[in-house]
Amino acid sequence: MRRELIIGVNHSPFITVNRPDSLENRLIKLLLHLDTLHPGEGWGDYLENNAIRWSDIVVWGHSQGGGNAGVIAKDHELARCCTSAPAADGGPGNPAAWWAQHATPSAQYFGLCHTQDALSQKVAFWTALGAPGPVTDIATTTPPYAGSQQLSTSIAPAVAGQYHNSPVMDSVTPRNTDGTARYREVWRHMLTADAGEPPAPTSWDDVVYATVPVTGGGTINLHMDIHGATTQSGPHPVIVWIHGGGWQSGSHNQTPSFALALRERGVTIASIEYRLSNEGVFPAQLHDCKGAIRYLRANAGLYGIDPERIGVWGSSAGGHLASLVSTTSGDASFEGSTGGNGAFSSAVLAGAAFYPPADLLNMQPDCALQSVGCSFNHDDPTSPESKLLGVSGAGEGLGWLRANLSNPSEPFPALASRAASSSPVAQVDANDPPMFLVHGDVDTVVPLNQSLRLRDALNGAGVGVTHIVAPGFGHGSVGTTLSAATGEWLRTQLMSCTADFNHDGDTGTDQDIEAFFACLGGTCCPACTGADFNADGDIGTDQDIESFFRVLGGGPC
């Protein structure tokens, strides 16, 4: 359909556009007209034998016009191709596969879109074209926008709600106080800036970090997506995101937006794949998570991350695994060998979990304790927990195992040991890192008492823990406010091991020392909570001051 619009030749049964009405013919007629009206200005130079010299032309398209511009750039090598809020001819965030092949080099693409206009879909389109990134908000940067050609804007449009058209349409484009368009310098940059080779990548898709055996024989590759921090100097702290799905579904490609938002706060996000329950029984999943963390440490230089500042975060089944990673730090019996890199640690500085299963054998008894009950029977052999622990045969299940915990006959001793090792509450000790737990009070999949059990175990061991009940939330979400608060807590925990308090990339300057003591005095600064170096909830103790100066000297936190 787009080609028929552009060249006026019948390509589609759905529309009828003849040659005179085509975009190409209209442009040819315009150039001829301008050359007649203004001889000597060179308008005819953009034509050769009455055909367009596309290599000398910049094409800019908005919305559906952005898709048309993309097809022109696919078929012809343009001087450059600019798109604003373009249509990508595919599903949400999943542009049509044919965009990957195009005559215009990737380094010649520029894009602009408002952050409130389905930005992720536009970014997916630009990424498919290979436009140099990462996405950069022009509201907080100036030309050349850190070398990025994928530009976003968070500036409010002149007409409320007109996010889609505000990057280019006169009537809704925001204005400076003198009446000029706020985006004038952005447009000039997109149209005239030098377009070189793409900068070094800041994100890596489907990185293979291990090859592992699976149930029934054979092997599979395990992947992770590494979404690099887009602000602040590296090396960056990293948060490992572990997806949910009852250990039987889900993907590393499903990194939530609230985690990705931390990239603009100087944090790299690594979303990891692990073996599902049909591919391996526990502890395969935990071994995979630890192998992913060891891989990140072993390759920290390649990805620009700080191997000493790693945290973990997950939801549901991913929250269970994140909790286990946190509570088994330093315990060799849980390490496994996924991916090798055995010389590197899988320990983390902090962990966060949304509605995590924490005591698997007591899932169904905990369901009976809450007025909303549970939506299925966790004791049944078809339950996710039964599949995870390998007790999913006829007549088996968690209830069967719980009733036989003291049975000395096989296979019960080995199964009881597996069940105990799968529960974070059983692994807690005083050496665990601090944790942040959030759970809805009407969750009918993982009962609220599961995270309460973990909270109580951590408190009993003297481990710092924050537990928040999200009123009115069931399973699958805790709301945007608590999601953002959890991410900020994790970021603060990871940032607290740096003495770069003014975030200029240089640790231990006079400005850092001044900012640190301003925090102690209660004055707001970018990382005031980071002054709690020993994470005991009390900012500015003697231990915090001692830790701060130890970090200045290159020592550990």
Radius of gyration over all CA atoms, rounded: 28 Å
The coarse silhouette is elongated
* Number of separate structural domains: 4
The overall average pLDDT, rounded, is: 88
Indicate the CATH class of the largest domain: Alpha Beta
Helical coverage, percent range:
25-40%
Biggest β-sheet: count, sense, barrel? 8 strands, mixed
Structural class given helices, strands, pairing?
alpha/beta
CATH topology of the largest domain: Rossmann fold
| Share in β-strands | 15-25%
Number of helices, counting only DSSP H or I runs of 4 residues or more: 17
Distance between the termini: 60 Å
- Total strands: the figure is 15
Within CATH, the superfamily of the largest domain carries the name Alpha/Beta hydrolase fold, catalytic domain
Low-confidence stretches: 523-529
CATH architecture of the largest domain: 3-Layer(aba) Sandwich
Major beta sheet, strand line-up: 8-9-11-10-12-13-14-15
Can you lay out the helices and strands and say which pair or pack?
Layout: H1 2-7, H2 23-37, E1 47-48, E2 51-52, E3 58-62, H3 64-75, E4 80-84, E5 109-114, H4 119-129, E6 136-137, E7 150-153, H5 184-192, E8 203-213, E9 219-227, E10 236-242, H6 257-260, E11 268-272, H7 284-298, H8 300-303, E12 305-315, H9 317-327, E13 350-354, H10 363-369, H11 384-389, H12 398-403, H13 412-421, E14 435-440, H14 448-460, E15 465-470, H15 480-495, H16 510-520, H17 542-552
Parallel strand pairs: 3-4, 4-5, 5-7, 6-7, 10-11, 10-12, 12-13, 13-14, 14-15
Antiparallel strand pairs: 1-2, 8-9, 9-11
Helix pairs in contact: 7-9
